[in-house]
Design a protein that fits this description.
Helix 7 links the parallel strand 2 (126-131) and strand 3. The protein has helices spanning 26-31, 36-44, 47-57, 69-74, 99-106, 108-122, 139-151, 182-189, 218-222, 224-230, 232-236, 269-276, 310-316, 334-348, 354-371, 379-390, 398-412, 414-430; strands at 85-90, 126-131, 167-172, 213-217, 246-253, 259-264, 286-290, 299-300, 324-329. The protein is α/β, with parallel strands linked by helices. The chain is globular, with a radius of gyration of 22 Å. The structure holds flavin mononucleotide (FMN). Flavin mononucleotide binds at residues 61-65, 67, 69, 72, 89, 91-94, 177-178, 180-182, 215-217, 220, 396-398.
């Protein structure tokens, strides 16, 4: 079965076997060359060599921050006797983002291979996959893969006779976006509220259960077996110097062919939107696009001719983020769209930091008032002032994420605000 909406212009490394139901099984995965990378890493490479090849590949974390994966692994202590942990971040709750879900749904063993190799590289004895609890259809697939991997000796004691042992636990989250923030996740894993921790100490020094820990996104880990098999230079043949390889973009909203697409990181955003995603619905034009999940700045229609690399989208005024692309056509009222996003952040704020707890609440309230016809011109500077007090002032960046769409929508779509404000004032005069 062809994966819905796959396109010849994609570069399908991670998604090569999406849509093939047999690839979800252990035998099907082995038939497709699966677990060869685990054999290679554990059988013929030292931990340092695994870290080195990941460094050479230039792979940057796909969870949102884009931190170099090999460098992150190298921060783990080398000569201590403490237990080390790898935590795979499969919380994926950012609005518009659904690419990790696809990796787990179609290729659970691809992720397990990444978890095993990553754990080996950082000297972890236990790996946790922290998975979003609402992924009710994906969780059994991952659980089955884990059982099968144990039964064939890819997990557990003395994996493939290499002398390396690893336990793996699938841990279900209870449905909180903030549990995707890495230190919130560690608290949740320990049975506490998912409240982010102040850093430092960073997880590599003091993470899960107070022990050295690395947290990596599903996509970051799932691509590691390919890098181990083929080498760092192979991965660098795609993308740019600063943004190597491929990236999954989950594309939703006003598109003719929404779906998850894997593209080289130097692919053009306009080509992704028009060629792969089929453009906006018939008779419509794009008004705005959020390229990297709801927490990155909004791009206007005239800003879409951009490279999908970290530096390319930054130059265009946004970010790669998680790769959750949300397209909005000219039927969209941006105040309405932003209000929906800010309400999400207000609901998901853990409440530790005043700027976030109060800022998201008040911004959502003002946006609702504007929508209902009670807006004032002073609301524009007021929203910008609230946003300025929310960004860069809190323990984690959920607050910054909520501010990003407010600020960018006011900068680029102020007409939508002014029209609603004027309409409200007009209605008030008429009554
Ligand atoms: C509010 C918030 C939610 C996040 N949610 C996720 C998530 O669902 N999945 C994810 O991988 N990273 C998420 N992150 C980023 C993680 O904190 C962390 O940077 C990432 O898991 C590291 O993995 P990587 O280096 O492989 O990207 C979130 C961050 C914040 C601030």
């Amino acid at each position: 079965m062809a994966y819905p909406h796959s396109h010849p212009r994609e570069t399908r490394i991670l998604s090569e076997h999406f849509g093939e139901i047999e690839a979800t099984t252990l035998d099907g995965w082995i038939e497709r060359g699966g677990y060869k990378a685990v054999e290679k890493a554990l059988g013929s490479m030292s931990r340092e060599q695994v870290i080195e090849v990941v460094k050479e590949s230039g792979l940057r974390g796909r969870g949102g921050a884009g931190f170099p994966t090999g460098l992150k692994w190298s921060f783990m202590p080398k000569d201590d006797t403490l237990p080390h942990y790898l935590v795979c971040n499969a919380d994926e709750s950012e609005p518009g983002t659904f690419k990790d879900r696809e990796i787990m749904r179609w290729t659970p063993h691809q992720l397990l291979e990444g978890c095993i190799i990553g754990s080996y590289a950082i000297g972890a004895s236990h790996c946790y996959i922290y998975i979003r609890g609402e992924f009710v259809d994906v969780i059994p697939v991952v659980n089955q893969a884990v059982v099968d991997a144990y039964s064939r000796g890819y997990l557990g004691r003395d994996i493939l006779g290499s002398g390396y042992s690893l336990e793996l636990t699938v841990h279900l989250g209870a449905g909180a976006y903030i549990a995707g923030e890495e230190t919130g996740m560690l608290n949740s894993l320990e049975g506490r509220r998912a409240e982010p921790r102040i850093k430092p100490p960073f997880p590599a020094a003091k993470g899960a259960f107070g022990m050295p820990t690395t947290v990596n996104n599903v996509e970051s880990l799932a691509v590691v077996p390919h890098i181990v098999t083929n080498g760092g230079d192979w991965y660098r043949q795609w993308g740019t110097e600063k943004s190597s390889g491929t990236k999954l973009f989950s594309c939703c909203g006003h598109l003719q062919k929404p779906g998850t697409y894997e593209i080289a990181m130097d692919f053009n955003l306009k080509d992704l939107l028009y060629d792969l995603c089929g453009g906006p619905p018939e008779g419509r034009e794009f008004k705005a696009v959020i390229p990297g999940g709801s927490s990155v700045p909004i791009l206007a229609a005239d800003e879409l001719d951009a490279e999908c690399s970290y530096e390319g989208l930054e130059a265009a005024g946004s970010m790669v983020g998680s790769g959750g692309l949300i397209a909005m056509d000219d039927s969209t009222n941006m105040v309405h769209a932003v209000r929906r996003m800010v309400e999400f952040y207000a609901h998901e704020s853990c409440g530790q930091c005043t700027q976030c707890r109060e800022g998201t609440y008040w911004a959502a309230k003002i946006l609702r008032r504007i929508e209902r016809g009670g807006g004032r011109e002073e609301d524009i500077p007021l929203l910008l002032d609230i946003s300025a007090n929310m960004a860069g002032k809190t323990i984690c960046v959920l607050s910054d994420s909520a501010a990003a769409p407010i600020v960018s929508s006011i900068q680029k779509f102020q007409d939508d605000y002014m029209a609603l404000i004027a309409k409200g004032q007009h209605a008030a005069v008429g009554t």
